[in-house]
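Q: Please design a sequence for this.
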């Protein structure tokens, strides 16, 4: 047995047990020797009784001394050691509690002085590097802002196709129930074959500047994406080079292209036949020895019918062509109020008067050209007095109306205005602006003696009070590019584990008697840090009443979960979120019991490796301490907001932060890999059962 691996308290206990055994052995030997020397068989009972009484007295004295020693020496030393490790490796700033070591002489004050000096040194070091850290943080923020506003999805992947970086646009493009996650395979979100082939092609070129364009589809919804791949140079091992992938959604482009191709095919088909018939009929009329008058009339009528069919076909196809123009022209969403205000400013600068009145709408239009057109029309109408620009909702689109008092504009004058270049935009005419928007412009007379020009826009929507924010978050960990991967989880260093820390809230404490999950939350830890943007949090419909006593603890009512998804659906999504990760929980057997009881219903196995922060706390601070989540976070200097306590997400975040603070303390004790930690926590099985096989 390796006694150096045993805890201090156990070694002290074994020392006193050996001392007791030695005393009893010496007592027995002395009694045997004295009995034999006496040589009186009748004295045997006296020797046995005296030896027994003396043995119990010896055992009692030694046990009493051991209890005092354990309570006043071993336990305080263990507490001081745990406190010192927490302040050394978990960066806890609170002063070390010396009251536990009041019988240890100068040891407790010395330990407090060491930790206080360490805190001062750390503070001085932090202050010394703060200026440089602030500068680097500013540069990092600027880089993140630039990357987050790139109008395409950007992914950075390792040679093993694991995600190292993604931006907000990529989250929208990849789709699915959950956002992508660091250290997850990109093949979980994109069809893998085109990506693998493109990477092989780039490796074969041996050109570090080469790029490959490809089409790929999303796994979630089959959306077609145009992608460009470029390798990341790795001089040490070119075959292990990762790659950058930029993504753009071309599903709408492909659909618009298909419609245009169909329109062109239909154009040729519908024009070819009447044109051929018209040509034949014209040939008959042109013959010198033509038919009789009645026959000529019939041929002439057939020619007119063919010409009419051709004209109608050309008109209909032209209208469809104009209507589809907006499908491929890049038009942005512009607030109606902003458009009206921009026109007002330009009209006022030119000496006119215009009152913009706009409904709360977002218009799909080319803002600059539309402002130029409306301003140009207002300039032509300057002699009509004060103008009013009204933008109202009309069906799926909007109607832009420029109104004035007086007679309407003549059509021929309006046509001339549209054919002339716009003021300040010489290369653009009003007719081109209308064509870009697949729209038209016409004059109208209003019943109250006013007139207006009407310009409809095909697409508009109401502006929400709180529009959905533009995704700006970029998530990355470039250390993943160079991280070596271990074949076995047991051999993986703790800081390289990909972990999912989770917590559940339930209807009660007895899953064997029908209690169910009402909320589950989880966060991901990758490469030793919590990924802020990768969170799983959802209510669950338990399919049974929630007792009032449970609601008093977690605050979840039956009304809150009435529209929530059932537990089987939620656990399938959670299993996907936690795929390939180590599960971490506080009092893991309780939460894992709820998951594993649903394996048959979900068709999934929750056979992940598991770490329990209760057992990790016992390894670092000793079994004699309290290992509740409140006690653990208090020792580690972690604050749980009162409103977040006993919520699944609040407890999950607290557990994750505690887990990250425990990792350096475990490493300092020589527990470097997952396997070593599991072997150590099994020594604390009287607290909780380890769930790893």
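A: Design:
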């Amino acid at each position: 047995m390796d006694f150096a691996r045993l805890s201090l308290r156990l070694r002290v206990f074994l020392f006193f047990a050996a001392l007791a055994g030695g005393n009893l052995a010496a007592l027995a030997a002395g009694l045997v020797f004295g009995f034999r020397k006496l040589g009186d068989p009748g004295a045997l009972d006296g020797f046995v009784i005296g030896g027994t009484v003396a043995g119990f007295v010896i055992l009692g004295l030694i046990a009493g001394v051991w209890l005092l020693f354990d309570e006043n020496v071993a336990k305080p030393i263990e507490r001081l050691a745990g406190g010192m490790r927490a302040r050394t490796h978990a960066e806890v700033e609170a002063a070390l509690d010396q009251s536990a070591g009041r019988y240890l002489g100068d040891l407790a004050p010395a330990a407090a002085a060491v930790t206080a000096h360490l805190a001062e040194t750390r503070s001085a070091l932090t202050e010394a590097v703060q200026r440089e850290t602030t500068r680097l943080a500013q540069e990092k923020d600027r880089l993140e802002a630039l990357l987050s506003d790139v109008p395409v999805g950007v992914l950075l992947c390792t040679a093993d196709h694991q995600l190292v970086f993604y931006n907000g646009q990529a989250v929208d493009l990849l789709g699915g129930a959950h956002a992508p996650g660091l250290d997850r395979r990109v093949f979980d979100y994109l069809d893998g074959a085109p990506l693998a082939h493109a990477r092989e092609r780039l490796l074969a070129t041996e050109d570090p500047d080469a790029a490959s364009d490809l089409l790929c589809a999303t796994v979630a919804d089959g959306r077609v994406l145009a992608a460009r791949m470029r390798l990341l140079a790795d001089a040490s091992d070119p075959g292990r080079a990762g790659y950058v992938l930029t993504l753009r959604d071309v599903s709408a482009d492909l659909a618009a292209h298909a419609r245009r191709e169909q329109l062109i095919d239909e154009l040729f088909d519908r024009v070819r036949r009447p044109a051929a018939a018209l040509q034949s009929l014209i040939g008959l009329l042109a013959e010198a020895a033509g038919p009789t008058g009645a026959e000529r009339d019939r041929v002439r009528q057939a020619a007119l019918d063919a010409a009419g069919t051709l004209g109608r076909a050309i008109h209909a196809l032209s209208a469809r062509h104009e209507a589809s123009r907006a499908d491929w022209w890049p038009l942005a969403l512009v607030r109606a109020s902003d458009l009206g205000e921009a026109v007002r400013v330009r009209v006022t600068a030119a000496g006119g008067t215009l009152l913009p009145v706009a409904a709360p709408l977002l218009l799909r239009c080319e803002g600059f050209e539309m402002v130029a057109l409306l301003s140009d029309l207002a300039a032509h109408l300057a002699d009509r007095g004060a103008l009013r620009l009204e933008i109202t909702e009309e069906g799926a689109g909007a109607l832009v109306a420029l109104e004035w008092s007086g007679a309407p504009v003549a059509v021929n004058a309006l046509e001339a205005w549209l054919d002339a270049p716009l003021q300040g935009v010489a290369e653009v005419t009003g007719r081109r602006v209308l064509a870009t928007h697949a729209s038209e412009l016409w004059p109208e007379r209003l019943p109250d003696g006013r007139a207006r020009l009407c310009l409809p826009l095909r697409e508009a929507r109401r502006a929400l009070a709180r529009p959905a924010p533009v995704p700006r978050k970029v998530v990355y960990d470039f250390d993943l590019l160079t991280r070596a991967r271990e074949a076995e989880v047991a051999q993986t260093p703790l800081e390289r584990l990909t972990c999912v820390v989770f917590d559940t809230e339930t209807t009660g404490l007895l899953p064997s008697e029908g209690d169910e999950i009402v909320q589950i939350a989880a966060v991901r830890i990758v490469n030793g840090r919590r990924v802020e943007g990768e969170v799983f949090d959802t209510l669950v419909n338990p399919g049974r009443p929630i007792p009032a006593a449970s609601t008093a603890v977690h605050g979840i009512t039956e009304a809150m979960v009435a529209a929530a998804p059932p537990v089987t659906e939620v656990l399938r999504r959670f299993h996907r979120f936690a795929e390939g990760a180590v599960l971490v929980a506080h009092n893991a057997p309780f939460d894992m019991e709820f998951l594993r009881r649903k394996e048959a219903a979900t068709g999934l196995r929750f056979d992940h490796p598991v770490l329990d922060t209760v057992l990790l706390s016992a390894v670092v601070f000793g079994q004699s301490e309290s290992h509740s989540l409140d006690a653990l976070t208090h020792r580690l200097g972690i604050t749980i907001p009162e409103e977040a306590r006993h919520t699944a997400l609040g407890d999950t975040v607290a557990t994750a932060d505690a887990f990250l603070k425990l990792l350096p303390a475990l490493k300092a004790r020589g527990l470097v890999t997952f396997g070593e930690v599991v072997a150590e926590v099994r020594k604390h099985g009287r607290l909780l059962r380890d769930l790893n096989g």
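Q: Thanks. Anything notable?
A: The CA atoms of residues 583 and 610 lie 5 Å apart. Residues 333-461 form a domain with the Heat Shock Protein 90 fold (CATH 3.30.565.10).
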